[in-house]
Amino acid sequence: MKPRQPQSPTFRTAEPSQVFGRQPVLEVLRARRRRLMRLMIQDTLRQSPELEDIQGGARAAGVEMVSTDRHNLDRLTQGGHHQGVLLEAGPYPYVELDVAMRTVSGRKQQLWIALDHLMDPHNLGALLRTADAVGACGVLIPADRAVHVTDTVVRTSAGASEHVTVCRVTNLVRAMQTLQKENVWFYGLEALPEAKLYTAEKFDGAVGLVLGGEGEGLGRLVRETCDFLIRIPLLGKVQSLNVSVAGAVAMYEVVRQQSARAAGASA
């Protein structure tokens, strides 16, 4: 193990958001993690179960609902695929790392995701959607030189971002070291000869998966902070996977093994 240092503080964005598209808007309303201001609904929409859910969520949260025309929604979303709904809300609610750690304290099986300077909002959105699906404890993203949870990320995640704990940290290495002090073992996903095949590794207890940025992979310091390196076999002509695909493959292997061990322990 490397020497471990105290965690760094995290930051919050101050920009309000315009979330549009029916599923993202519905998940923001369901999660109620943000300040919710106004729901704009296209005046020519036909009533549907999905729209009723959105309106019901807005009423339950005390959100003002206003009717508007499609032209106005097109203008506000810059031609985005709004599906007739737009929600004005507060900024994305990042969670401090120490808070995230306290919420899972005592949980034997854990899965943390550390993202080393991803730049593509679509990759981040896809990874957050998978992180929600597998019940990840938290996702760590750097405060600088990395994409943050933008409105595009929310839409790409189909609103799953609203249910995931995302910690925006000033120093990813220090954040990893803080978790290592709590017996989280980090596995860096990297296509290197010395990396172990991901299905041959034993994932148990508190696990952290580390994914590198597009094109760059893991930075040197982040790689050196990992406890282990793992790789996904590539049998075709193209010797790389999209980071969101690779992350999903690895996350589900961790969950598969953890679930199998938990089932065996309770049998």
Structure write-up:
There is one protein chain. By secondary structure, this protein is an alpha/beta fold. It folds into two domains: 17-89, Ribosomal protein L30/S12 (60s Ribosomal Protein L30, Chain: A, 2-Layer Sandwich), CATH 3.30.1330; 97-266, SPOUT methyltransferase, trefoil knot domain (Alpha/beta knot, 3-Layer(aba) Sandwich). 36% of the residues lie in helices and 21% in strands. The chain has nine helices and eleven strands. It has helices at residues 22-31, 49-60, 70-76, 97-103, 121-134, 151-156, 172-180, 220-225, 243-266; strands at 17-20, 36-42, 64-68, 85-89, 110-116, 138-142, 166-169, 185-189, 196-197, 206-212, 228-231. The protein has a seven-stranded parallel β-sheet, sandwiched between helices. Strands 1-4-2-3 form a four-stranded mixed β-sheet. Mean pLDDT is 90; it is low at 1-14.
Topology:
Elements: E1 17-20, H1 22-31, E2 36-42, H2 49-60, E3 64-68, H3 70-76, E4 85-89, H4 97-103, E5 110-116, H5 121-134, E6 138-142, H6 151-156, E7 166-169, H7 172-180, E8 185-189, E9 196-197, E10 206-212, H8 220-225, E11 228-231, H9 243-266
Parallel strand pairs: 2-3, 5-6, 5-10, 6-7, 8-10, 8-11, 9-11
Antiparallel strand pairs: 1-4, 2-4
Helix pairs in contact: 1-2, 5-9
